[in-house]
Structure formats: structure tokens, C-alpha cells
Amino acid sequence: MKITVLTLFPEMFSPVLNESIIKRAQENSLIEFSFVNFRDFSTNKHKTVDDTPYGGGAGMVLSVEPIYHALKSIEGNENALKILLTPQGKTFKQATAKELALKEHIIMICGHYEGFDERVRELVDIELSIGDYVLTGGEIAALTIIDSVTRLIPGVLGSPESYEHDSFYTDSLDYPQYTKPREFMGMKVPDVLLSGNHQEIAKWREEMKLKKTTERRPDLLKK
Q1: Which of 17, 132, 168, 186 is deepest in the core (most CB within 10 A)?
Q2: Fold of domain 165-221
Q3: Is 87 an annotated catalytic residue?
Q4: What pLDDT digit, counting tens, does each position of 155-172 carry?
Q5: Residue in 65, 166, 171, 174 annotated catalytic
Q6: Which of 10, 39, 53, 114 does the annotation list as catalytic?
Q7: In whole angstroms, what is the distance from residue 133 CA to residue 155 CA?
Q8: Under CATH, which number does the domain 2-150 receive?
Q9: Catalytic residue among 10, 53, 87, 176
Q10: Mean pLDDT within 104-113
């Protein structure tokens, strides 16, 4: 998979993408990242990419022109899935991550300042939001989506079982997990997990998933 990010701050991505699982995925040629600074496509002498909004108002608005030219400079942009990161977009969920993990090329556009010229929306296929709150820019949202999608790419985590029991993968929360020691400060590992009876363990885990989801996220069960 290839992921291209249009951003004014490409240096924000290196500390995260050059560590841990995502770093290994790149080394194994399972994913490739590239970054385009759309300030490089500004057509004015001051290299500005924003301006005051028509009709007045606070803040600065990102112009459509440099973003358009930056997008068109990307090889294969016509066939890539183009995503605008915005609080007004569809909420990003695990199901969305599964869909994106199947794509060959994704382009994400990160905003900044007060917002986008509305015409930028005409350049993309979908708009995504990572939650009902506002960030200073789309970079953190892009990193969130990258991390969520990368781990679903075949080969990144090894066995699919590594993520198939994750919370939200099947519209439920994950079951409780334990490791050594068996007892710590009076808190014990459930006996069923020490029984060696895989059928009973599987049954217990399903029951715990349902219990935890009912207690913490009953809205998931309504689906």
C-alpha cells in the first residue's frame, strides 16, 4: 500500500512512522509513505497558502489553488482514494480502517488554520473525522488513521488473529487479557484461563466480551 499525505508540516510524521510496527512494515515493503508540502505549490512570491475569508470573519482559510496543484503532482492521483481530514467528515471507525486497508493508494489532505476553501471538497472522494472535537491541524488525525490502517495490512502483524479480537473489530469490546504472575497483590487470574480447556476458555471470552460491551459501550450492541 502507498499512502501520500499533503501537509504543511511533513516533519511531524517522522517520529511516529520511523518506530515500532510501522517502521518494520516499511522495511518489509508492505507500506510506502510520501509527503507533499502544498506550500511548495503556492503561486505567490510570499509562498502563502491561506487568505482572509470572503464575507469577513476570524482566522485564515486555506486556498484551493496550491492544494489542487499539489494533488495533481502526485503520480497515480487519478486512481487513488483521496481523503480530506476535517471535523465535518464521516467519523472514522474500525470498519472504515478495514475498507482503507484494501486500497492500493490513499491520499490524505491535512488542513490547518481556520479551515478549507469549500472548493477543496470537490477534489476528494471522502471526508473523514476522528472524533467530535477540533485539532489545530489534520496531521494528528492522519497519523491516527495511518496507525489503524497499517496494522490491518496482511503481513504487518503476522497472524490475522493479532487483530481479529481487537475491540471494535466485530462491533464489541475485547475480552480481558492476563499474563504472569498468576496472582499479584491479591488479584488472581481467572481459573478458567489456567484450566487448559480451550472450549471453556473460548466460551468465557465471548461472555466477557458481551459483559464488558454491555457495561461500557451498550451503543455497540444496538447495531
Answers
A1: 17
A2: Trp Operon Repressor; Chain A (1.10.1270)
A3: yes
A4: 998 765 455 555 556 678
A5: 166
A6: 114
A7: 33
A8: 3.40.1280.10
A9: 87
A10: 93
Residue 90 has pLDDT above 80, yes or no: yes
Q: Which residues of 6-32 are buried (b: 16+ CB within 10 A; e: fewer)?
A: bbbebebbeebbeeeebeebeeeeebe
Element containing residue 143 per DSSP (H, E): helix 139-150
* Residue ranges, CATH 3.40.1280.10, the chain: 2-150
Decide the pairing of beta strands 187-188 and 50-51: unpaired
d(CA 198, CA 116): 54
Options 39, 121, 151, 205, the catalytic residue: 151
- Catalytic residue flag (residue 114): yes
